[in-house]
Design goal:
about 210 residues; mainly alpha; 13 helices; elongated
């Protein structure tokens, strides 16, 4: 029980044994007889869970109610992913925990090829978590500079002031002749009532 508790405490602030139950028997039979230090045991369990052939054992953690357990499980799934990395990241972007989604997007920027990353960015651009939408703009500039102006112009009407600020910075950096205030004025004069409040805020922000 102490051994099981040690592992689950490592996985979550509120121990969720479900993620380790599928590999507990393997751990006890393979690692404990070697008299390994507890940290080495945990590392070995994590290494076991990273292996793609053991993904089924990790599935319970990916669907756990505890968000800290899910964060660990998704991290292990990404670290162990091969050709299915894009699938793992898309699945993480559907999780309720914004940290799971943000960490997945950061990994996507470092590890996915351009076509796969662009599909991920299209999805993440509409995420409700503000830091993630800002990360989309930053990743677009880093990986797809030719597309950053178009994506940033769309983000000028984002509901978040900080996203709008970054969008204006990027538009001004790559298209200095573009009239940003005109975008807001056109919306205010138009019939898009849903965007009027954002446009009025944008006008106030740009003077």
């Amino acid at each position: 029980q102490d051994f099981l508790g040690m592992i689950t405490r490592h996985l979550s602030r509120e121990p969720d044994v479900s993620i380790v139950e599928p590999v507990l028997a393997w751990t006890l039979s393979t690692l404990v007889p070697q008299h390994l230090h507890p940290t080495e045991v945990v590392d070995a369990v994590f290494a076991f869970l990273r292996q793609p052939v053991n993904r089924q054992a990790l599935e319970v953690g990916l669907a756990a109610a505890d968000r800290v357990t899910r964060r660990v499980a998704f991290r292990l799934a990404r670290e162990g992913a091969r050709n299915d990395l894009a699938h793992v990241i898309v699945r993480a972007l559907q999780d309720d925990d914004p940290i799971v989604r943000l960490e997945a997007l950061r990994d996507a920027g470092e590890r996915l090829d351009d076509p796969s990353l662009e599909l991920v960015l299209i999805t993440a651009a509409h995420d409700r978590f503000v830091p993630l939408r800002r990360a989309v703009l930053s990743l677009t500039e880093a990986r797809f500079p030719a597309r950053v102006v178009k994506r940033s112009k769309l983000a000028l009407l984002d509901r978040s002031p900080s996203v709008r600020e970054l969008a204006r910075f990027l538009v001004g950096k790559y298209d200095r002749e573009f009239g940003i205030p005109d975008v807001y004025r056109d919306v205010v004069r138009g019939d898009n009532e849903a965007a009027t409040d954002v446009a009025l805020a944008g006008l106030a922000e740009t003077g």
